Amino acid sequence: MQHTLPRGHKKLRYAWAFYDWANSVYSLVVTSAIFPIFYAAVSKDAFAVGNVPESLKGISGENIIFITTAIAFLIVSILSPMLSGIADYSGKKKRFMQFFCYLGGLSCIGLAFFTFDALYLSLLSYLLALVGFWGSLVFYNSYLPDIALPDQQDATSAFGFSLGYIGSVLLLILCLAMLKFGLYPEDNDLLGLRSDQMSFVLVGIWWMGFAQVTYYYLPQGTKKDTSQVKNIITNGFKELRKIWHQLSENIQLKRYLGAFFIYSMAVQTVMLVATYFGEKEVKWGDDGATTGLIISILLIQLVAILGAYIASKLSTKYGNLPVLMVINTLWVLICVGGYFVETPNQFYITAGAVGLVMGSIQSLSRSTYSKMIPDGSLDTASYFSFYDVAEKIGIVIGMSIFAVVNQLMDSMRFSILFLLVFFAIGVVLLYRVPRIKH
Q1: What is the pLDDT of residues 34-47, one digit of tens each?
Q2: Residue-wise burial string across 227-241, b where 16 or more C-beta atoms lie within 10 A, e elsewhere
Q3: Whether residue 384 sits in one domain with residue 407
Q4: Cβ-contact 68, 126 below 8 angstroms
Q5: CA angle in degrees (0–180, nearest 5) for 346-344-165
Q6: Cβ–Cβ contacts within 10 Å for residue 153, how many?
Q7: What is the pTM of this model?
Q8: Within the chain, which residues score under 50 in pLDDT?
């Protein structure tokens, strides 16, 4: 059943934003918090007893998940342009969005049964959850101009971000209560699942369940004229190629994208490996790592909002590019400091610093890019599709490099230290970008 509302209607905009409440639990609980801790424990036990597929015995436990993550983002970077074309012309956006939502939600539930006894099938659940999350976002983001008027879009988008933050933090706190405070009895007979495994079931149910509010109000999508488009599936790639050719005429945007690609590669990698690093490299003592790592993730989330606000104020006064150069320099210092982190307190301080620069660099990078898109351009969606694909390919390269260095040096400390090279190069490349004219 669907409830049809006109574009700009308050209920329609709120229903769209509510999908952030639904799906953001994946990025916080699975990507950042509970699953990395769960996987570290499961892989450690498997390697201790030799319960690892023969073909993977020469690879460390964390590198198995790092490589899987890189493969998943490679799939996403290939799929995104195809999905963008489908979203633009098919008229079936909601159906595709639902498919990827359910793929991701069911795969999250599958993570509850993750085991090295069936490792490849378990890794497939992890990979499909990631593909489902990012695939649904392509269609979700493309709905914004369909459900909100131009002067409503900024506020609607920000409202969605706020809902996502609140919802994901609430579920993470609930998971923490199950893990540490006996809210979920470990001796129950419900599927034979422990509290950490039940967290993944909750993520899938929360994601798919609350998404129904969004699907109830969202229109199916408008089928556009395809007479000028030979193939809607390959049209997204053609749009990316067109933007690539246009970059040769825009030296400012071309140089900025080069800088963004390099430093974003390191930023996204740090975000994806932070919990694995904390679990393996920090000496947590008798209490274990679970509570400390989840507190660190919550700290990063809170401070990231402050970082985004500070960056916005500083960029207004000093300009986007100088502030981005300072932020990249701070990242270099954080990488150096991260190499020496050993105690929980040191990790908390580092997590706070990461949150500050993470929130600032993400928000400022996107707004800087937006300012550089030529005025009056009709291809803003294609420009941002290009931006997103560049970011995803950067993640593939960053995760791969991190895994290789970790494998060679047998320590994530050296991998973190190696990433500072990309931040340093980012500073140099940003310096070469012609300044934004206000």
Answers
A1: 999 899 889 999 99
A2: eeeeebeebbbebbe
A3: yes
A4: yes
A5: 90
A6: 14
A7: 0.85
A8: 438
